[in-house]
Amino acid sequence: METQSCLINPKENGEWEVYASTQNTGYAQQAVAYVLGIDANKVIVSTRRLGGGFGGKVYNTKGIVGACAVAANALNQPVRLILDLESNMKMKGRRPPYYFRYSVSYRIVLRECSKLKCNFLLQATVDEDTLEVDTINVEVYCDVGFSLAVRESPFVAGWIQGSYSCNEYNLAAYDVVTNTPTVTTCRAPTSAQCHAFAETLMEHIAVHLGRDPLEVKMANLLRDGDPLFTFDGSGGYTTYRGTNPLPAMIAK
Asked: Which site among 22, 46, 133, 249 is 20 to 30 Å from 209 CA-CA?
């Protein structure tokens, strides 16, 4: 995939011509104007196409075009900056780390409805047959680095369930500023972290009960009519409709 790159050319009347591999020409324009101390209308940014972006070139091109603009201004001639792959990965090449703190209430439904009490973080009612999750309480902390320019928390709700259903899901997501570099959203923000959490949660339950993790996961897959978080960041619910294709895929 194409690394972060740009070409900046000083023009007449204090104008600057910028060719940037960016997903947001407005941010690139702001960055160049800021480091040069000029009005934004003096900066003309063009982007023909990207050799791969996936979110990594929305915010993160600011530092690249800014550094390139400083060099072009000092030399008063065109400057091109292309990161090698190793430098690109060190600067921008990973998703932000997450911390999940959660508790779960679950039950196992038996046709005969015989019940057995047990505890797992919260009190749970357990039978001998098919496992179903009742309630999940989770707090998510997104380490966004030194800046809130890239916020992750609004996207958590859209991914946190993974492929699984739950009668009640209590979610709180926070962006946390730390003394670390800000990294990249990199395609479908929060998806990888939240899917990892959903799978870990199911396996945690399975280990606690001494059950097969696949059995636990199959019992809790989304079904037609189950509540599902929306992707708009509002924390609202919609309804899952249709037949879940995963059981048939797993069976094959």
From this structure: 249
Characterize the bridge pairing of strands 168-177 and 130-145: parallel
Residue 168 token pair: 């009640």
Q: CB-based burial of residue 13 (10 Å sphere; 0-12 exposed, 13-18 middle, 19+ buried)? A: exposed
196 Cβ contact list (under 8 Å, min separation 6): none
Task: Give the CATH number for residue 203.
Answer: 3.30.365.10
Instruction: Give Cα separations from 7 to 22, 92, 137, 171, 224 (angstroms).
Output: 12, 19, 49, 44, 52
This prediction has a pTM of: 0.64
- Same domain flag for 235 and 211: yes
| 129: phi then psi, degrees, rounded to nearest 5 | -110, -110
Strands 5-10 and 16-20 turn out to be: antiparallel
- CB atoms < 10 A from the CB of 30, how many? 17
Say whether both 19 and 87 belong to one domain: yes
Residue 206 confidence (pLDDT): 86
